[in-house]
Amino acid sequence: MTVGADFEAILNAIPVPIIVKDEQFRFSFLNEAACALVGRRPGDLIGCTDYDIHPTAEADRIREMDKRVLCTGEEVSIEAEIVVTGGELRTLLTRTCRAELTRGNTSENVIVATILDFTERRRAESELHASEEHYRSLVELHPQVPWTADPSGQVLEIGPRWENTGFAPNEALGEGWAKATHPDDLDPVQQAWAKSLETGEPLDIEFRLAAAEGGYSWYRSRAATRRAEDGSILRWYGTVENIDDRRKALEAAKESEARFRAIADDAPVMIWVTGEDGADDYHSRLWLETTGQTAEQAAGKGWLNAVHPEDRNAVERAFYQAFERRKSVRMEYRLKRAGGGSAWVIDIGQPRFATDGKFLGFVGIALDITERRNAEQERLLAQKQIHHMARHDALTGLPNRQFLREEFERLSDQIAAGTRIAILCLDLDGFKAVNDAYGRATGDLLLRRVAERLQNCLRQSDILCRLGGDEFVVLRVGINSNAEARLLAQQLIDVIEAPYELAGTHVDLGVIVGLAAAPKGDQPVDELIKAADVALDRAKSGGRGTYVQYEPEMDAHLQAVQQMRVSLRQALANGDLEVHYQPLVDLHTGKITTFEALARWPHPERDQVSPAEFIPVAEETGLIGSLGEWILRQACTEALKWPPHVSVAVNLSPLQFRNQGLAATVGDILEETGLEASRLQLEITESVLLDDCDGNLQILKAIRRLGVKIAIDDFGTGFSSLGYLRTFPFDKIKVDRSFITDLPDGRESLAIVRAVAAIGRSLGIVTTVEGVERQRQFDVIKAEGFDEAQGYLIARPLPAEQATKLAHSAHVETSTTERG
Fold first, then answer.
1. Are 347 and 331 spatial neighbours (Cβ–Cβ below 8 Å)?
2. Where is the GGDEF domain (predicted)?
3. Looking at the predicted structure, is the pLDDT value of residue 763 above 70?
4. Which residue has the higher pLDDT, 124 or 614?
5. Which of 18, 263, 471, 744 could form a disulfide with 780 if both were Cys (CB 3.0 to 4.6 A apart)?
């Protein structure tokens, strides 16, 4: 036996538990009230019997009653005290009857049980026997204002807290309570009270009462009857509860909603919100302007009328599937424009839940991607762009290490037997001098010219990659001898060392090459690169124009790492490391909001050791935990010297999350240094959420509970950065510097940063841009509504003493001399 959807909805709306069983005494339907009573979901109960949810003795009793009802057709009512979900003892009256369902020529008997909660009634009857003195004491001690009235509505007693209205309790007797009621509320209150007196229905109304200190406060009055056995009303019992704070909170919530609507209407993306029933009840101004709909036309399901007819069914199906599952939804479709034509949008919706887990509906944003869709292939654009960005260098467009790994695996099976694989690592000599002398823009142009020359001299089957900085890698398969690899190295040197003309400037550049060759499938590509790097280090002693082929005896990598580990451990123990601080500036006020703590190692023999060199060693050798804890303690201690509105940001390595006590360590350092948790920001990269996501997520939540703020760094460089925003409620987004390098001219970069700024505003997340080195970049991100900026244009990382002086200055001016 199944219950129709409409009838099921009606039964679910009935607050009385209703249970239907078939002739085999199996549950075939339970309404929501029945499921709540037993503390189980419908899907867990359908097809089960009472023996699956009750002790055997109780199930036996119910089964005997059901058999009697099914056999005789008589209705059976049994009242019993039963422990319900949560361990509460309730007095329940179960009425069980038989019903016959007919379908065509067949009929089926079912058992229908309704359960009435008589707990309160029996309790009230018991209280009839309590003494009046006991009742009066309860009235006097009640934190609310209890009251009683006779059947005609005349107040007989009222609690002493009535005097909070400025009137004595005896003044409220009879109908005297009306004197304390706000004039505008008196008539509605009297009408509601009169209706309850006439019908015997409970009273529940909110109104204003006078306050002893002046003015009025909001109260809620509820009342119910006590009846005799013949049903006549013996007395009314009620309470008056002060709900002024709740009403003010409600008004504040309405004001907050109004602010949200105002902010949403200014956002450069279309924002929409639905209620728990799935009907849209809000669309931002940009939606209405784009589609030409009014708010009334877009409400409910009206927004579907703005979807292109060819996309409408798919969009509606995708949304309602997501709504039923209460899962996020992402759709790409066309909207009909108000002035004709259509606009392509990416529409992303997320379910909303209250703090108690109640489903509230969906909220979503729709971004106009018409230009991008027209410029590239339709639905593959976003995936291709992400795939390309993850495998290519943003500056030169060359493949990166990830691309090289994947292609190496693909090509390995195609290499002819008996041939070899060659890896050549190229390090430009003199590039830093050019970059420092002529600026970042000229340096970037030089790197692109080098990439062009290399591409033009290589075979189509060769793979050329940029691994970062001024380091390039060439992979050639199918070579027949080591001599052929060495010849290629010399060719690359000759090509790169030819003079360059850059914007009228004559530039000379050298190159050093390390190469490694191996038989097919002999070594992974990372090992070949490592071997070529070892040869490259050896070649550097020969100066520019030198190439060296790797030989096994050259491999001193492990020894170098060991020496670095020993030196780093000693530097940590001796306090030889330093922490410098680079400021983040509020784009609206010009004031410093935060300093990012950055480790520095002034080595007695090597001058400054780059963090890019010693941080990986710390991670590889297990020192990152001690190093990270030391940096955090130093940063928190130094932050105490700054104004209280200035925070400190500390980077966490993904490897630090292997320590399950990381959150406790953070808490201990905060307690030890005395820094307020809200002034500490911890920055993580997306790899924290990729590696052991569940465990790391629990550590992040534990840190967040301390009051510490969490920022996601290098945002936009990974595969699923948007997904992380719903995985964890980040306080700050730091946009990776690669997205602003070509601003303001780069259209794609501008579209991306504009969308990130809008997402940050709609989600209430602070947005920061790092790597700001030019005034034009600064002007663009400020205009797009970002909250903070960081980079050399503002200030380089500073020693602690200089950072403290800067922290106490009124604000920071951007540098007049731009880099690049």
1. yes
2. 419-552
3. yes
4. 614
5. 744
